[in-house]
Write a structure and sequence with these properties.
The chain is α/β, with parallel strands linked by helices. The chain folds into 2 domains: 203 residues, Rossmann fold, CATH 3.40.50; 171 residues, Rossmann fold. It is built from 12 helices and 15 strands. Strand 14, helix 9 and strand 15 form a beta-alpha-beta unit. It is globular. The relative contact order is 0.12.
Length: 381
């Protein structure tokens, strides 16, 4: 059976995790004898700067562009409408079930769809439902109406959940989706590439990955609080990723802020090996940057905006989880870390402990075997 994986962007022009996962899935499926093709809906994203990190790795994957129209609705809700979508085999869609209502409504009989959930599936963990609970309820009602209209095809709609909170949300809100059609397979990382970090400086070196798309402005707010508390000189901050909005002049002038832009994978690995901590403040389903911090032995600071935070805690991983994700929560935690660092104590005593847990539960080879198993199970169904 032919397998199609939809990638929002050509990997040559993407520095995002979503495309990395799609291409890694496709590459592994191809190596295991599957007939795989990637369908790309955008040639570039925001910048024409190519990402040369993985061109050779993925060169044997067949791929082509397909036309995709985005119907933009209120509160940044997109509905994707594809032209010339294949009408056979299994199609893997990367985002939320909300985004594919049109395709589900007009899905060819017998065709199998996998909804990959790599963007926010849990609206209650996102910005929207803090003020728009009624909107969430309306969306879920619309999803259930579409599922009911296609109830004869429910057996051919599958969910790939990447955190356990997503599974619970689907069970509670979309009861027409069968339990056996939900697969829990988390995100993955090749932990062996990352070295446990060492920073001999008495200043706390902190990194943020992802730029504007990953809520870098929250980190700017944290820095302003540290400056107000006269603690900013205890830190060095490093920013990886494109920042598409103008940065305050006050911040640009700070000598201990370093804006690196989109850098190579090799440069990122080298930088991480010299850090103390990583901040992951954005709304996430399952942050790759968080995994990178853990396998680099960094002190990880995130919040309950990160939907997988509970999964990490359940596994015994040691990390800081801010209750509300407010800058003042992060600033206080960072000041405490900087104080410990200045007196020569080890702030990353759980570095190897955390890394071993990540390897056991999110190691690349193990997760890819589960992805292969999911596709083979759906093929047999």
């Amino acid at each position: 059976m032919k397998l199609y994986l939809i990638s929002p962007i050509d990997i040559k022009y993407s520095f995002r995790a979503t495309e990395r996962y799609i291409y890694d899935y496709a590459n592994y499926l191809r190596k295991n004898g599957k007939d795989v093709e990637i369908l790309i809906t955008k040639r570039k994203i925001k910048s024409t700067k190519p990402n040369n990190n993985f061109i050779m790795k993925y060169r044997k994957i067949r791929q082509r562009f397909i036309d995709c129209r985005e119907l933009l609705l209120p509160f940044k809700w997109h509905v994707f409408i594809y032209k010339d979508l294949p009408r056979n085999g299994i199609i893997y869609f990367p985002y939320r079930i909300y985004d594919y209502l049109y395709e589900i409504l007009f899905k060819p009989k017998g065709q199998k769809y996998i909804i990959g959930s790599h963007s926010m599936h849990l609206l209650k963990n996102g910005r929207m439902t803090e003020k728009h609970q009624l909107l969430e309820s309306a969306w879920n009602s619309l999803v259930n109406l579409v599922l009911w209209l296609r109830r004869g095809e429910i057996k051919n709609i599958y969910i790939h959940a990447i955190n356990t909170a997503q599974i619970e949300y689907i069970r509670q809100n979309f009861k027409l989706i069968k339990e056996e059609n939900i697969f829990y397979i988390p995100n993955m990382i090749n932990a062996e590439k990352y070295s446990i970090a060492k920073n001999k400086s008495n200043k706390l070196r902190v990194v943020h990955i992802g730029g504007t798309d990953k809520d870098v402005h929250s980190v700017f707010s944290i820095i302003k609080l540290l400056n107000e508390d006269r603690r900013i000189n205890d830190f060095q901050f490093y920013f990886i990723g494109k920042i598409s909005e103008e940065v305050d002049t006050e911040l640009i002038k700070m000598p201990n802020l370093h804006f690196l832009g989109e850098i190579s994978e090799k440069s990122k690995l080298k930088l991480l090996s010299t850090m103390d901590a990583i901040i992951v403040p954005a709304y996430e389903t399952f942050s790759r940057a968080l995994l990178e911090g853990l396998v680099s032995g960094l002190y990880v600071l995130t919040s309950k905006k990160n939907a997988a935070w509970h999964d990490f805690k359940e596994l015994g991983i040691k990390l800081f989880v801010a209750e509300n994700g407010q800058p003042i929560e992060y600033a206080k935690a960072l000041e405490d870390l900087a104080t410990i660092k200045k007196i020569g104590k080890n702030i990353n005593k759980y570095a190897n402990y955390n890394k071993n847990i990540v390897i056991r539960n999110f190691g690349e080879s193990m997760v890819l075997k589960k992805i292969l198993g999911m596709f083979e199970s759906i093929e047999r169904a």
